[in-house]
Design a protein that fits this description.
Length: 739
C-alpha cells in the first residue's frame, strides 16, 4: 500500500449495505483464493455492518485493510493506487429516498450523508485518468473517468492486501511460545496512541504555547515590579497589564483545547479497548467463566473505565509538560543558583516521600480491589437468586453478610485513602517549606548588593519555582493513579492474556455432513484432583434417530453433551463428528452443528422475536415462524398482547416453563442444527406438560439427530435407543430392554 496517503481511522457512523458488504467479502476472498462461508461471517458479524466492522471482517479473513484518500487527478497519483481497492458509493435506494424527501415538507428529515448506507465498488483496473470497477450485481467491470468516480464516491478508499502470513483471529492451541502474543500491558497503548499522531502533534504545539506564555508571565511581573513601579510609568503598566490579561485568556483557551483533544482521543482509545476486552472475553472457553464469579468479571471490566480516566486525565498533558521543566530550571539557575538548589533539594524530599508511600499504597489498593470484586460477586449471585432468597427467608442473613463485607471494603478503602492523605500532607508541607525558604533566602540576597538580586527577580523566581514544582507534584500524584491503573491492567490481562477458543471465518471442510457422533475410548475428569468421571467410554449416536442418555445424577450425562460441543476436552480418547476429530474443528464450526435445549432456558430482556432471532440474526420472519410452528409455540405467541413483539422480562419473566422450553426448541431449530440436544429439558415440567413436550419432539424425528438427556423417559416419547450411563460397562442397550 505504498504511494497513497493512508488514514487508519474508520468512521463507526458510516454504514455499509449488508448484502453489498457480503458480496465484497466473498469477492475479495475469491480473489485471494480464501474459502468463504456466508453463514460463518453473518454469525460472527451480525448486521448492520459499519466500516470498522467491515475492516475487522477482512482482517479475520486473513486480509489486511486500511483507509486512504483518493489520489489526485494526475496519472502518477492513480498509478500509485494498489489493486484491488474498494470505492464506497451511496446506495441508490438511499439516495433516491434522500432526494425525494425534499418534496414533502411534512416528511421526516432525510438522514445525514454519513448515515446513508454505502455500497462498495471493487476497483479492478486503472489507466491514466480512468478506472474500472465492479458493483454488486454486475457481471463485467464498468469504466468511468477518475474525476467522475471521485465525485460519486466517499472521500476515502478501502485498500486491501493479503496479510503475510495470514492472521488468525485466535491463538492456536498448538502455537509455539515464540508465536504467542505479548502479555497485555501498558505497551498495548503505544500503537493506539501513535494512530493519532496528528492529534498529539496539536497537543504538543498547544503545550509549547502554554509553556512559552508561562515563561513570559514571570518576566512581565519582574518588569512591573522593578521598572514600572520604580519609574511610575502608568502607560507601560497598562500595556503590560493588558498583555498579561491576553496571556491569561490565551493560556485558558489553549489549556481547554489541549484537554479537549486529549479527552476525545482517550475516549476513542477507550472504545477500542472496551470492545476488544468484551470480544475477547466472549470467546474464552467455558471453564474460564466457571472458575470465576460473574461479579469478579464485571469488576475487571470496570478496569477499562479506570484506564480511560488515567489516560484522559492529566497523564498525557503532564508528560508533555515535563520536558519544559528543563527550560524553567535553566532560567532559575540564571537568576540564583542558591535558590535553585534549595528548590531542587526540597523537591527531592517530596519524591523520596512518594517512593516510600508507593508500595504501601499499592498493597492497600490491591486489597481494596479484591474486596470490591468480592462484594460485586456476592450481590450479583444473590440478586440473580432472589426467588430462592425469599423462599428460604434468607433476607436477614444476606443483609448481615453483605454488611460485614461492606464494612471490610470500606475499611480497606479508608486505609488506602489515609496513605494518600498522609502523603498529600507531607508533600504540601514540604512545598510550603520550599516557598518560605526561597522567600527568606531570596530576601537576604536582595539585601546583599553584590548578589544582584532584585525584588522583581525574587517574585519572578518564586513564580518559576511554583511552575516547576506543580508539575512534579502532579507527577507524584499521577504515580498514585498509575498504581491504580496498573492494577486494572493486571486484571484486564487476566482476560486478554487467556487464549481464546479456536475461531475461524474460513470454512475448514465442505458443508454438509449428517451429524454422526462417534465416541471412542473417552476418559474425562475435571482436574487431576478429581476422580475419573468415566474411562474407556465408547458409543455411537446414529443419525436421524432419537437417543436417550439415562443414569443417576453425577454419572456424566450433561458433561458428555458439553464434551460433544467442545466446552471441555477429554483427557483420553476422541470424539468424532462425521468422522472428524472435533479437536480439529473451530469452536464456531463445531457448535453450529448443535442446537441445545437446556434444563434452565435462558431468555433475555427484549421481545420474543429478539430472543428467537438471536440464534440466526439473518433469518427472515418467515424462517422464525416456521421454527416456531415446528416447536408448536407459534399459536401461543400469536395470542400474546403484541405477538412476536411482546416484551418479556429477564430470564423469560411472563412465560410459563413449558412456553420457555418450546421457545428454546424454536431458537435451537432456527440454527438449522444437525444434532439437537435436550439437556434435562423436562426436569422442571409437570407430567402432563412433559408428555406434550415429548409429542413435540416426536414430530421432529427424522429431521434432525436428537439426544435426550433425562432421569426418566416420558411414556409418549418415541425412543430409538437408550444409553445407560449408570452401567459400569457404559454400553448401549436397546430401548425395549431399558425402558
Amino acid at each position: 500500500m505504498q504511494g497513497v496517503h493512508q488514514d487508519t481511522t474508520a468512521d463507526a457512523e458510516t454504514h455499509v449495505d449488508t448484502q453489498a458488504a457480503l458480496w465484497l467479502l466473498a469477492s475479495l476472498a475469491g480473489f485471494y483464493r480464501q474459502p468463504f462461508d456466508t453463514e460463518l461471517v453473518i454469525k460472527r458479524f451480525p448486521p448492520p455492518i459499519d466500516l470498522p466492522t467491515l475492516i475487522e471482517a477482512l482482517d479475520a479473513l486473513g486480509l489486511k485493510a486500511g483507509l486512504a484518500h483518493w489520489p489526485d487527478g494526475q496519472s502518477s497519483g492513480l498509478s500509485a493506487l494498489p489493486l484491488p481497492a474498494v470505492a464506497l458509493l451511496p446506495t441508490p435506494a438511499a439516495e433516491a429516498t434522500q432526494a425525494g424527501s425534499g418534496e414533502d415538507t411534512n416528511a421526516a428529515s432525510p438522514p445525514p450523508p454519513s448515515r446513508i448506507p454505502l455500497t462498495p465498488a471493487l476497483i479492478v483496473q486503472h489507466g491514466d485518468d480512468t478506472l474500472a470497477w465492479v458493483k454488486p450485481g454486475q457481471s463485467a467491470p464498468e469504466t468511468v473517468a477518475l474525476d467522475a468516480a471521485r465525485a460519486q464516491a466517499a472521500p476515502v478508499l478501502l485498500l486491501v492486501a493479503q496479510a503475510e502470513p495470514p492472521v488468525s483471529e485466535s491463538v492456536s492451541k498448538t502455537a509455539s511460545p515464540e508465536t504467542q502474543k505479548k502479555p497485555f500491558g501498558f505497551s498495548w497503548f503505544v500503537p493506539e496512541l501513535l494512530r493519532h499522531k496528528r492529534i498529539w502533534r496539536d497537543v504538543l504545539l498547544a503545550s509549547l504555547a502554554i509553556q512559552l506564555v508561562g515563561l513570559a508571565t514571570p518576566l512581565f511581573t519582574q518588569v512591573i515590579i522593578d521598572k514600572v513601579i520604580a519609574h511610575h510609568s502608568e502607560s507601560t503598566l497598562i500595556v503590560l497589564g493588558v498583555a498579561l490579561v491576553v496571556f491569561m485568556l490565551f493560556t485558558s483557551g489553549m489549556t481547554w483545547l489541549r484537554q479537549y483533544l486529549v479527552l476525545h482521543t482517550g475516549s476513542r482509545i477507550d472504545a477500542v479497548l472496551g470492545e476488544k476486552v468484551l470480544k475477547h472475553l466472549l470467546h474464552l472457553p467455558l471453564p474460564y467463566f466457571e472458575a470465576r464469579p460473574t461479579g469478579t468479571l464485571v469488576a475487571r471490566l470496570h478496569g477499562v473505565e479506570q484506564l480511560r480516566e488515567f489516560i484522559c486525565g492529566a497523564a498525557v498533558s503532564l508528560v508533555l509538560d515535563l520536558p519544559f521543566l528543563l527550560i524553567f530550571l535553566a532560567v532559575m539557575f540564571s537568576y540564583s543558583w542558591q535558590l535553585t538548589l534549595i528548590a531542587l533539594g526540597i523537591l527531592t524530599l517530596i519524591v523520596i516521600a512518594s517512593l516510600i508511600m508507593v508500595p504501601i499504597f499499592r498493597e492497600r489498593l490491591d486489597k481494596q480491589f479484591l474486596l470490591g470484586a468480592r462484594n460485586q460477586a456476592f450481590l450479583t449471585e444473590y440478586l440473580a437468586g432472589m426467588a430462592t432468597v425469599k423462599s428460604l427467608q434468607l433476607e436477614p442473613d444476606v443483609g448481615k453478610r453483605y454488611g460485614t463485607y461492606l464494612a471490610q471494603y470500606l475499611s480497606a478503602g479508608f486505609a488506602t485513602k489515609q496513605v494518600g492523605n498522609t502523603y498529600n500532607v507531607v508533600a504540601n508541607g514540604l512545598e510550603q517549606v520550599m516557598t518560605l525558604s526561597i522567600l527568606i533566602v531570596g530576601a537576604w540576597l536582595v539585601m546583599q548588593p553584590e548578589a544582584g538580586m532584585t525584588v522583581g527577580m525574587l517574585v519572578a523566581f518564586q513564580m518559576f519555582a511554583s511552575r516547576m514544582s506543580q508539575p512534579l507534584l502532579r507527577l507524584v500524584g499521577l504515580w498514585q493513579e498509575f498504581q491504580q491503573a496498573s492494577i486494572s491492567v493486571k486484571r484486564l490481562g487476566d482476560i486478554l492474556d487467556m487464549p481464546q477458543e479456536p475461531f475461524t471465518l474460513t470454512p475448514q471442510r465442505a458443508a454438509g455432513g449428517e451429524g454422526r457422533i462417534d465416541i471412542r475410548d473417552v476418559g474425562f475428569r475435571y482436574s487431576e484432583q478429581h476422580p475419573w468421571l468415566y474411562r474407556n467410554l465408547s458409543l455411537a449416536i446414529p443419525t436421524g434417530k432419537l437417543t436417550v442418555l439415562m443414569g443417576p445424577s453425577g454419572c456424566g450425562k450433561s458433561t458428555l453433551a458439553k464434551l460433544m460441543q467442545g466446552f471441555y476436552w477429554p483427557q483420553e480418547g476422541q470424539i468424532l463428528l462425521d468422522g472428524r476429530d472435533i479437536r480439529q474443528l473451530a469452536a464456531n464450526e463445531l457448535r453450529a452443528t448443535f442446537g441445545v435445549v437446556p434444563q434452565e432456558t435462558v431468555l433475555f430482556s427484549g421481545t420474543v422475536y429478539d430472543n428467537l432471532a438471536m440464534a440466526h440474526p439473518h433469518a427472515s420472519f418467515e424462517d422464525v415462524i416456521a421454527a416456531c410452528k415446528a416447536a408448536e409455540i407459534h399459536e401461543v405467541i400469536e395470542k400474546l398482547p403484541q405477538g412476536y413483539q411482546t416484551e418479556i422480562g429477564e430470564r423469560g419473566t411472563g412465560l410459563s416453563g413449558g412456553q420457555r422450553q418450546r421457545i428454546a426448541i424454536a431458537r435451537a431449530l432456527l440454527k438449522r442444527p444437525k444434532v439437537l440436544i435436550f439437556d434435562e429439558a423436562i426436569s422442571n415440567l409437570d407430567q402432563q406438560t412433559a408428555e406434550h413436550f415429548a409429542q413435540t419432539i416426536n414430530r421432529l424425528k427424522g429431521k434432525v439427530t436428537m439426544i435426550f438427556i433425562t432421569h426418566q423417559v416420558p411414556k409418549s416419547l418415541q425412543v430409538d435407543e437408550v444409553v445407560n450411563m449408570g452401567q459400569h460397562a457404559m454400553q448401549m442397550s436397546l430401548v425395549e430392554e431399558d425402558v
